[in-house]
Structures are given as C-alpha cells and as structure tokens.
Amino acid sequence: MDIFLQQLINGLVVGSIYALIALGYTMVYGIMQLINFAHGEIVMIGAMVTITCINLLVGAGVQLPGPALLLVGLMMAIPVSMFLGYSIEKIAYQPLRKAPRLAPLITAIGVSIVLQQAAMLIWGRNYRPFPQILPSEVHIIGGAAITDLQIAIIALALLLMGGLFFMIEKTKLGRAMRATSQNPEVAKLMGVNVNTIVSMTFVIGSALGAMAGVMVAANYDQAHAYMGFMIGLKAFTAAVLGGIGNIGGAVLGGILLGVIESLGSGYLGDLTGGVLGSHYKDIFAFVVLIIVLVFRPSGLLGERVAERA
Amino acid sequence: MNALLMENNRKNTILLAVLAVVLAVLPWALGGFFENGNSWLRAVDFALLYIMLALGLNIVVGYAGLLDLGYIAFYAVGAYLFAILNSPHLQAVLPAWLSHPPFLVMMILAAVVAGIFGVLLGSPTLKLRGDYLAIVTLGFGEIVRIFMNNLDRPVNITNGPQGINNIDPVQIGGYDFGRPIEFLGLTFEKIHLYYYLILAFCVLIIFVSVRLQNSRIGRAWVAIREDEIAANAMGINTRNVKLLAFAMGASFGGVSGALFASFQGFVSPESFVLMESIMVLCMVVLGGMGNIPGVILGAIIVSITPELLRDIINPLQMAIAGKRVVDPENLRMLIFGLAMIVIMLVRPAGLWPSKRRRAELKPKTKDIALQEKDSLQDAERNHD
C-alpha cells in the first residue's frame, strides 16, 4: 500500500511538470498546427539560467533564504526563456507560415540543435548539480514520504495551470487566442492581431516551460544540456495522449503519463516476475499512448479534426 | 519534337556515363587527393547508406505523405538481424541452416523481416493522421531501441548496451570482403570493396524508386497523400496501399541496415537513437520531398556537411585565435543546425523540389487564373 502511495506521489510530481511543459506544446499546436520541437530546449535553458544565477549569488556571498534565491533565479530565467521563445517564432516559424507543413518542423529541429549545442558551449558537457539551498524536510503521509519541494512543485504547477485556464477563458487575450486557434482568417477579420497572438502564445508557453525546467532540475537535483530533448519528448507525448491542441487534455495527459510511468516502473518487475524491469518504463508510456490512440485516434479529450495537408 | 526528345535522351545517356565513371574512380581519387583519403571514403560509404535510408523514408513521407519519426527502427532491425546471424554471439543456439546464410538470401531476409516490422507498425496506425501518426511512429522507434538495449536479460539476444561484436564481413562468390583482393593490378581493401557493394545496392534502390514513382502504386500513394477520402472513392484500397508504403520503405531500411552491420562489424543500440530518425527525415525534407534527385542531394548534404565542418573548423580556429577557444564538436553541430534553418527559410519546399510540389507552390499564371474566372462566370450564368 505504501509503495503504491509513494509511486503515486512521485508520479503526480513528475506528471504535473510534464503537464506544464505539455501546455507549451499544445498551445502552439492549437494555434499553428506546429510541433515546436525547440520547446524542450527552452525548458533546459530555463533550468540552466536559474542554476547559474543562484550559483553566482551564492558565490557573491548574498545572504538570502533558499526560496528567495530561487525566486531571483527564476526572475532571471523567465525573461530569458520568453525572449528566446519570441525570437524563435519570429526567426524560424513566422516566415514559413504559408510553406509546406514539414518546413517549419525542420527549422524547429534546427533551432533545437542550435540551442542544445549553444548550451553545451556555454555550460559544458557535464551534469550541473542543483544548488542545495532548499529545505529538504520530509513529511510522512500514510507510509509514503513527500518533501516540501514536491509539495511546492505540485502546488505551483496547479496554480499556474489555474492561472492559464483563467486567462484563456476569461480575458480578452484568451478570447483572441481561442478565436485564432479556431480560424485565424476570421479572427483577423474580427480585429485580432494574429501575429501578436502567436507571439504571446510562444511567450506564455516559454515562461511556463522555464518554470517547469527549474522544477525538473530541483526534483532530480541536476540539469544537463541534453535534458530538454527527453523531457520535451515526454511532454509532447503527454500532449498527444490528452489530445493535442486541447488545454485540458495537456494537463490530463501530463498527469496521467507521470503516474503511469511511475507506477509502471514500480510494478513492472513484480508483475512480470522480473523479466521486464523498471528500465522498460519508457516503453510503458509509449505502449499506453499507442493503445489509447488506437481506440481514440484524436487523444483522450481531442475533438475529431479534419486533416490539414 | 521527336528530335528534341532524342537529343535529350542522348544528353542523359552521356551524363549518366560520366557519373558512372566518376563514381567508379571516386575511391581512388579520394585516396589521391587527400592525405586521409580512407576516412573520406568511409564518410562516402556512410553517405551512400544514408541515401538508401532517405529513399526508403521518401516512399513513406514523400510519396504517401505519412510522417514517420521512427524510421531508424527498420535500419536497426536489418542491422541486428545481420549481426545475430553472422556473428559468433548466438552461433551455439542458431540452427545450422540459419547461421551465415548466403549473401543474397541474407539481404532478402533483411528486406522481408524489416518489411514485416513495417506492417506491424502500419496496422495499428492506419486510422491516425498527421502528427498523431508522427508521435506513434516515434514511440515505435523508441520501443524497438529500448528492447535492443535491454534484451540481454532474461535471455541474451541483443547483448544489451554493449552491442554485438565480431560481425563477419560478407562473402560473395568465395571472396571474403574483409580481406584485400588483388584485381587488375589494384589492391581493393575492405573499404573499397564495401564502397562498390553499397553503391550497387544504392543504384538498385534508386532504380526501384524511379520505377515506383509513376507506377500504379506510386500514383495511388500520391493520391492518398493529397486526399485520402477522394483516393478511397476512386477505388484505391487505402489500407493495403498504405501498408505497402510502410512495408516498402521499411524493407529499404532493412537492407541498408544489414549492409551497415557488415561494414561496421559492430552494432549497438546507440546507432539507432531518435536523432538518427530525425536526421533521415531532414535529408528527405531538405532535399525536396518526393523528388528522387532532391532526396539524394539532401542525404549527401546532411551526412557530409558535419564531416566537412570537422575538417574546416578546427584548423580555422587555430589560425584565427591560435588556440582551441570552443569545442569544435559543438561548434560544428551548431553551424549544421543553423544551416538547416537557413536552407529551409530560403527554400521552403526543399533544395530540389519535385515538379508537382513546385507547381502547387507557385502562384497561378495569369492565363490560368483568367480561365478559371471565366469558367466560374460561365457556370453562374448557366445556373441563372
């Protein structure tokens, strides 16, 4: 029982991070039908910038409590990521709006390679440890351990998701975003500046991504120039699982994927008598994805959309 | 008109003859021009393998319009099949008739087994479209890789992350490709022999691709790519034709995988990561989807550019700064990524797009636009 609860908690933590990143994928997809392959790299850069800032502050002898240091780091990383997201869209995607569908996919891959290699040039090839500045108090709930950090991650992720929902459903900007995603041409006729909306989508998605990156780094105690690739892949899988282009779907898919992965890696070995170990957990995620898509070809919450060639 | 056609034909024949001569002497020319000619020849051998892969993926993505992000899995299947049947690793348990099969049998086996994997991937994904298909194929590629990485327990089939060593080179007509062969006063080393072998298969695959393009099946693929429902209405069995695209593309991958394994003498899961699938896709799209010369060009550029940069960047850095300022490995990949972005921005349909695609992208000529307008007005008038 307590193992189950423990894996569930771990899954929820990882899942809410996936969900935050998946939101970035799904928002961009909903508006431009584009897989933004570079989003994982933004997540990585968010984590790297934060770690560098905290290390600089600590090195300069600034006496602040851990969470405050983290906040300062985040305040630096979020604008950097926002700026990157904005420029990527302007440079690599906007000129290709009317091009064949796969063209922006290739530039996205190009951007991803450039950011990854640039990060390697700046921060080197090694793992960067996350500074030990956060209190590591452990609470025991029903036989399972949960740290302050994990509670904070889940709470912040929920808060951010709630904020995003509110923005999309209630504000003028959100209404313009929904209109653009339904039909950019008609949205334009209604006085929506589509270019601004697309830029805003990238900026908001990148900010969420940067925060998710810091959560990943804090949760695993390390960051690496290649980390964006795998985490981006997982988050994209989550977005597809929930139905890409659907905000609620991204959240559901992310949390589901995190929990499935965590429970899968915990129980796979026991269930199969040790034949399949926890190193098959990535397969677990993909197999679930394939099964879901066989029965629901547009994801869990996705609507049936017409194919765009 | 006829004379013009013959003129064109003659030109093409001459061009092909020149190309054949160039390709035949290329290994010796490389050896003559460069100090490290053999490492360049190795790069060329790999470029040829990538051409085969890109042409295989071109069938799935370029002809049939099915976005496949896990294509490298079929390359892996071919490579591992060759490795298992032709290395000491599993000799003890393999039945005698299966170990070291004759070369042609081996190649056919690789094509067939990879093709079956293609159908295996294709059948659950028939209903999926666009990006949903992309993510499932990506998942499939990862599943194959993870299995290869972990199938050393409980029964050791793939030898896990260490990979399979000591793969025997191919033997054709009693000649062992692992040993130098003397012929016409020239010494053909392993790398030369494999160059000609891979080139032969490359030509075969180009031939098959060309013949497929305007065949009944090829046109059916294009019809599905443009509009699946309309294709279905025209009497195309979309299910079978799509599965055929997956199987055909996969079998190309399987063949080149088998050649890769025997050339390299070693396979490990590291050669079949997602990035490789993405690179092959880049070759197809950068070159010009659906156009065979374009895809070949894309494959050559994407596989040779990093090698070229390797030889340029470090000396240049030394000349300018006098010391190693940045890691050349990172810098070359960075430049490579930038080049990809720039090429796509300048030529969104690829470097050498197919005629059909070019026609789609170009704005209509004035005459056609006028004609359409007239016929629309006619239709309206008739309606009244």
TrEMBL record, chain B:
The chain crosses the membrane at residues 47-66, 73-97, 103-123, 130-148, 193-212, 243-266, 278-302, 333-352. The keyword Transmembrane applies. One of its GO terms (molecular function) is ATP binding. It is found in: Cell membrane. GO terms for cellular component: plasma membrane. Its main location: membrane. InterPro entries: ABC_transp_permease, LivM-like. Residues 361-384 are annotated as: Disordered. The keyword Transmembrane applies. Pfam families: BPD_transp_2. Keywords: ATP-binding, Cell membrane, Membrane, Nucleotide-binding, Transmembrane, Transmembrane helix. It is a multi-pass membrane protein. This is ABC transporter ATP-binding protein. It comes from Chitinibacter mangrovi. The lineage of its organism: Bacteria, Pseudomonadati, Pseudomonadota, Betaproteobacteria, Neisseriales.
